[in-house]
Structure formats: C-alpha cells, structure tokens
Amino acid sequence: MVDKTELILICLVAVALLAIVARKIRIPYPILLTIGGVVLALVPGLPAIHLDPQLVFNLFLPPLLYPAAVYTSWRDFRANLRSILPLAIVLVLLTMTATAYLFHGLVGLPLAVGFVFGAIISPPDAVAALAVAQTLRVPRKIIVILEGESLINDATSFISFRFAVAAVMTGFFSLGQASLRFLFVAAGGICVGLAVGWLATQLQKRLDDPPVQTMFSLLTPYVAYFSGERLNVSGILAVVIAGIYYGWRAPRILSGRMRLQALPVWEMVTFILNGILFMLIGLQLPQVIRALAPGTVTRVAQLAIMFVAVIVLVRFVWMFGATYLPRLLNRTFHRKNRAPWQQTALIAWTGMRGADSLAGALAIPFVLANGEPFPGRDLILLLTFCVIFATLVLQGLILTPLVRWLNVVDDRVTEKEERLARLKANEAALARLEAIESSNRARPKTVERLRSEYEDRIRQLRSEAPPEESVSRLFSEDFEELAREVLQTERDTVIELRNEEAINDQALRRIQRDIDLAEARLSR
Length: 524
Hints:
- This protein has helices at residues 4-25, 29-41, 53-70, 74-79, 81-107, 111-121, 126-133, 140-170, 175-205, 210-230, 235-253, 256-283, 285-290, 297-329, 331-336, 341-349, 355-362, 377-406, 413-438, 444-462, 477-499, 505-523.
- The chain has 524 residues and is mostly helical.
- It folds into two domains: 52-406, Na+/H+ antiporter like fold (Up-down Bundle), CATH 1.20.1530.20; 413-523, no CATH class.
- It is elongated, with a radius of gyration of 26 Å.
C-alpha cells in the first residue's frame, strides 16, 4: 500500500516525465498532466487525495499568479484595457447568470445554488490560460488580452461566489448591497496590492544579497494575498496588482546578480506547483464519482455537455458581438479598430477552466446554517470537474490546429522592438565610449577593443542579421571597469525605452538578461 508521501513523490516523477512527453509532442503540459492525474487515480492501491480548497488558495495560487503579473507588460496591458476589462468583468457575470438559470431549470435546485455553480465555472483559469497561451506563436495582442483577462477575472468570480454562497446560507440577497460590496472588495484589493508592491520594491532596493532577496520575492505574493484576505478584500487582486507594480519597478532596482539567480528559482517553483496542481485535479475524479448516487453518471455527463456548450457559446456571442457591433454602428470606429475575425475566434475559443474552478467547488460549505446539507454540492463538484476536463483538454488540444486552420501568425512585434532597442542601446554605449575616450579616462587600446565589439554589433543589427554573442576571454582591470560602465549605459537606455513605451517588458527582459550575462562574464 502506497502512503500519501510516496504518492506525492510519484506525482513529481510523473510531472517530470509527462512534461518531457508534452514538449516532444508539442502540446501544453497542463493538458497531459490532467489526463495523467486521471490515469494515476485509477491505479489500484493508491490512497485517496483530498484536495483542500484552502490549500489551493493559500499555497498554489499566490506564487502562480504573481510571476504572471510581474512579467505582464504594463504598456500592453493598459493599451488593451478596453478589451480586457469587459472580458474579465462583464463576460464573467454574463456567463455566471446564463449558467445559473440553466442550472436552475435543468436540475431544479434554487436559483441561488445555480449562481454558486455559475460563479465557479464562469472564469477561465489564469494558470491554465497562461500555460497554454505561452506555447502559441500568435500576435502579441492576443496573448496580452488572454493574460490580462485571466489575471483579473478571478477577483470577479470569487467575489460573486461569496455573495452566492451567502444567499444560499441566509436565503437573502440584495443586488444594491452586493454591488457596493463588490466595489469595496475590488478597490481594497487594488490598494493592498499597491501597498505591498511598494514595500517590496523599497525592501529590494536596499538589499544586495541575491539569496535573501530571492526569499523575499517568494514571500511577496503570500504577503499580498493574506493581507488582502485579512482585511476582507480581494487577496487575488492584491497579488496581481502587487506583481504589476513590482514588475514595472524591478528592472531599475534589482542587480544583474539578483535577476540571474532569482529567475531559475522562480521557474522551478512555478513548474513544480503547476505540475502538482494539475495532477491533483485529475486525481479528484474517482472520488467525485464515488460521492454520487448510483446511476447518475450518465445524467451528469449530459448536463456537463450542455453547460460546456453554453459557456463556449456565450463567450463566442460576446466576443463577436462586442467586437463587431460597434463597428457596424460607427464607421469611424471601424476604421480605427480593425480586428480580423480569425483573431476574435481564437480568443473566443481560448477559455479553459482549471484549478480555480475546482478550488471554488471544494470550498462550498457541507451544511447550511440550519444543519441541512448544502443543496447539490456533490453534483456541482462533479459538473465542475467535467467542465474543467472538457475545456482544458478538448479546447486545449484543438487550439494548435485551430491556430493553423485560422492562419493566425505571430506579428513578431516583440522581436522587432527588441532589435530596435538593442540597436539604440549599443549606439548609446558607443557614444558613451567615445566620450570616455575624448576625456582620456581610459587607455586607447582598451577603448579600441570595446569600440570594435560595439561597432560589429551595430553593423549586424542594422543589417538585420542575427547578432553574434561577443565574449571577451581575458579582462584587464581597466577593460572590466570600462565595459561595466558602457553595459550600464545599455541597461539605462533600454529601461528608458520601456518607460517611454517604445518597447514592451518582454523585449526589455530579453535584452536585460543578455546584459546581465555579459556583466556576469566580466565578474568571472
């Protein structure tokens, strides 16, 4: 008999192997991990794993949402707010309402219970959407919209979930009070996130110890989440806002050593948490089925198909309606806001549900205030899993061939901005080098050596040839000092281009990593 500790180790091995297979066959690894969890759960002799919803909220979601927010380009996010906010707020509420009335009509339980179920399955999952979207070579705008939607919609759904559960527990609901409470919780989450983000930047700015700084960076999302929850505001929104604020400030305040050491740590942490989380989703299926009455599985499958069809249909209707109705009514708007239908269709299809929905279903109370069982809890749990499995696996597997069929190709905006930034940074460094030479601060041979490197890079960038890595093997003391100064000029120039919104954060991070590596080579 395998105990739970051994099962966790088995899950970790399975995560590593399935991730390798997913990369080989080129499908998003959350899909394969979810299927692997289902298969692993069917192996006889394995102990039952009960996924505590608070474990998902408290342990998994903060560190998974935070790096996604940190790496979000504020320029691109702000430029696409008109598309992101309706998806993250209006579409979530619309899907919740449509699902609630369908649940009420088909199942026969109270409408408030239907809203509990609707709030659970209405938001696409942030972790699933990001993991799937990052494997696609599509226009940058699509990725930005999907990332922005998945980061914000959790706050909308979980606030609505709390109101719906309270309505079932008390039998009372006031739309006016709920609306005011929604605004308070959202505004409070934003304020907490800004405060934690500011504190994190102030702390990091005063430290120069990468291991300690990395530890504080791992703790930051938990501080934001628990601070928000303690103050009865949105902890998830606090994590997102803290990440966006910190991500904007980080390029200026962090040293190259810190970035080079922290990034692999974060990559390992997020990979392990992602892998275990999606495996645990799959492991829940047998337990959920066993909790139902005999003979109800077929009926549940029929209901699940209808609910999946409704949430997909609502998303398609909303996407095409919100995109093209204003263009039909206003020709000026049409000329200024051209959106190919293929891109709209792709965004409409990419609405995978994931661990957030399962955590919400598990968080439903077992009993009401009067001691009676919560109506339809087991049914909601199984339907939620079916919706997660169908949207994550079926939609996710179809996504890559759909991109090819729609002929949606990468616009390579980030690559173009990156090349421009590299060119300007190298030109600025060369100008700085010439100023140093004219002031006689360095030996002519040292200056000439660096000048030849920068001139060669500039020639390659202007000719649009792939830049070759320039490595100097032997560094004299004056060469190292001079190289550090011009590398800092490169770094400052790229940050200024980001601040002026000439490039996005992804291009900044790519170039900054190369500069950090060049500086690390000097240290060696």
